[in-house]
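Page 42, continued from yesterday. The earlier attempt failed because a stray header line got pasted into the input along with the sequence. Redoing it now with the clean sequence only.
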Amino acid sequence: MEHPSPSPRLWRGSPPSPGAGEGVFLLVGLLVLLPVLRLLWEAGDTAVLARVLDSPATWRATTNSIAIAAGATLAAALIGGPFALLVGLTDLRARTAVTFALILPLMIPPQIVAMAWTHLAGSGSPILKPLGLAPPVGRANPVQSAAGMVLVMGIEHAPLVFLALRAALRAIPGDVLEAARASGAGPWRAVRSVVLPLCLPGLVAGLAMAFVAALGNFGVPALLGIPAGIPMLPTLIYRRLAGFGPSALPEVAVLAALIGIVACLGIATQTILQARIASRLPGGARPLAPVPLGSARVAVEGLAWAVLVLMVAAPLTALLATSLVSVYGLPVGLGTLTLAHYREVLALDQVGRAFANSMLLSGSAAGLLALLAVPLAHGMAQGGGAGRIARAVGVLVELPHAVPGVVLGIGCILLFLKPLPGLGVSLYGTLWIILAAYLVRFLPLALRPVQAACAALDPTMEEAARALGAGPLRRLVTVVAPLVAPAAAAGGLLVFLTAFNELTVSILLWSQGRETIGVVVYALEEGGSPTLGAALGVIAILVVLVAMLAAGALGRRLPQGVVPWRG
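This time it went through. Structure tokens are written below.
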């Protein structure tokens, strides 16, 4: 189909050269797809495929993964759904604080969340033991079980359901609720019969994200499932790779592909269900008016904060108390408090290296992806061939973030194990293989805020620069980039937040001397140093909180929804 030519009045300078932009977009798409394609190629060996699928261990881990991920998804729905309705529909006070507290477990690394719950529920619990509620010494920790994993992963992934459902509520015009009220329906009947059915696509999307996140979670199954003898696919892959090294790659490639297939089936189910229940909403920019809680508001707010204290504050307090007691298991008191564990853990060589490595990797990934997101998001907002290619690449970049991180980790090992063609250099065993995986996995986090900012730009500003003879690159640098810079910075901060303590990818790609903070925290806890692991976990949480506060401050200049815990 032919497109109308640009107006000669606007094209006083040289017309843009779409070939260069299209080449960049195609290169990004290729780099994103290569690890996944390499994994599928390796998993296609029929002999290895038959051997892995014939193993009882494979099906036990697969069954456990699906069952526990489904249970965690249900728990996430039971937690995130009511909070989304409270924050998105009612006159609940302190919504930003409630949202921040609910989202915090998603921002904290899973291994630290699991470690905090282990210290809270164990026989040496600094909170439950003084109350006489801790299990007796010698009895198994109750969270180191299938039910414990369901609970902890449900709390960790409840924000995914919350954010998806809250976004669906924000998309409903206020006229819909007012029309139902005008027809004689009370406020809660109007919500139940009109608003909630319109939110079903958002709820389904949140459930799918929670299921895929639970399916690929490594930190929680590693710290809670391995001690309980409950294998899941991510931990089975890790133990095979740790025990046999690169010789196990063909088998773990099949296991990783199996996780990817289950995840894709979950995403496909989400797409089908959303298509069946999606509703067309009438136009209108006015948001839903808050439904008054009336005399029940104080009780509802008290219940909401009590739930948040139990889910978030209690395990984090147990983690902090464990890091401060002189000997693990002692009660917290003036005679038992010490900062020695912090001094000791910060004096460890591997901790210093891990901080340097994590800062370098997460900072580099954040900076590079923030820069890359600007031309890619701008290209996606344009028309023509380059715009279509950019939008297709935008769909592709979601793939590594949608599938579990273990799939990408194995794909990167397979892709970079041998020297790069023409260079004779192998990235395997270096920091750069971790950086490459971070760039591919976290590109969507950097891209989404810039997409929102580009969609809100006034096109007349770029048209004015074009009329003055500015070419595409100059317009991008002088007009678009300064306007979307806050969104790019916010996207970079989100990447930093996620990558700094990341474990699922790093645990498969790290090598001696190239540890990350997430790997060292896991190693300390697994190695029987709970107080040191707790101290390092608290330090990592402080870094996360500082970055979240910085992103929240920056969020005042950004479109709604870019920083998820801001209203």
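Notes: The chain has 22 helices and no strands.
Reminder to self: strip header lines before submitting.
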